[in-house]
Amino acid sequence: MASRNDPVNEASDRDVQIDGIDTRDGVMAEDAAPENDVTRAIQDRKQSREEEREKFRISQFDVVTSLFMALILFNVVTSLFMALILFIGVFVAMLFIIWLTSRFSFAPVAIAPIIENPAGRGDNAEGFERDFEPPGAEEVEELMEPTLQDTIEAVTDAVSSVAGALTTSDTAATATTSGTGMGDSRPPGPEGEGEDIIPRSERWQLNFTAKNQPSYAKQLEFFKIELGAVGGKIVGLDIVNNLAGSPKARRLEDASTEKRLYFMFKRPSPLMQYERSIHNQAGVDLQGRNMFKLIPEQLENLLAKIELDYATSKGHPSITEVAKTVFESKPGGAGYEFEVIAQRYRK
Length: 347
Description:
Organism: Rubripirellula obstinata
Helix content: 40-55%
Structural class: alpha+beta
Radius of gyration: 58 Å
Protein name: Transmembrane protein
Keywords: Membrane, Transmembrane, Transmembrane helix
Strand order of the largest sheet: 4-3-2-6-5
Transmembrane segments: 56-74
Shape: elongated
Strand content: 5-15%
Distance between the termini: 169 Å
Region (Disordered): 170-197
Number of strands: 8
């Protein structure tokens, strides 16, 4: 039995203890390793969170930039709002002006009349020459009728000298009472000397386009054109107005007092039936009578200006060069307006 103080046994015991200690330290090291991994993972996670927070952290530059962007956006929105308010204000003001002006009637702008003085032959026959000038003072005595005594003596002398010379002769010549004069070369119209101009009544042609009577009457009423009827067994001139509403007629006993320009149909047209219907509505008798349109003076001046402006634009500044002008009524402006659709010039 070994002694407690045996060196060998003590050494063995120490070895066992050392081995035990070493063995226990190894176990503790193995248990501490997972704890270090967890700690390291927690630290890594904290670090990643800090890095993510750094990414989302707002810098001073971002703060200043955001402030300026907010100010710019505020100014833009404010400007748009003010522009909208201004637009609405202007729109309302325009509506008010339109309403206000519709309450008043303004007279149309007066057009300076274009006066024409065409030459006319009056009641003289149409021809190629002109009548002789009236005699002068020294020629009047020769043209004066002789006294009764001078006439008796002249007749007695003439009868006694030619009585024996009267014979009957057979001839193929046709008896005629027409003279050999050349007539009057001036155009139709009141007799007088004037410019070499074709009168408006012969130079102008007014065209209207309408699908029905109300449309035609509306155009005539817009231009203040009146319808007339003359001739037949009725003395005087019947004039019809208020064409687009309830036509009314009035009679002018002396037709020569009517000085307005007028136009008549030169060929059959559906518009003639519309005018005839308007006359019938007004109670005008058309049997054996001629229908025509009376043009107001203001419209005549307007047509003259339109014609001259058109001719000038085509290189014909003088109305004496115009032979024919065709106008046509077309929708425009506040209702209708006349336009030149064709124009011919004199050679």
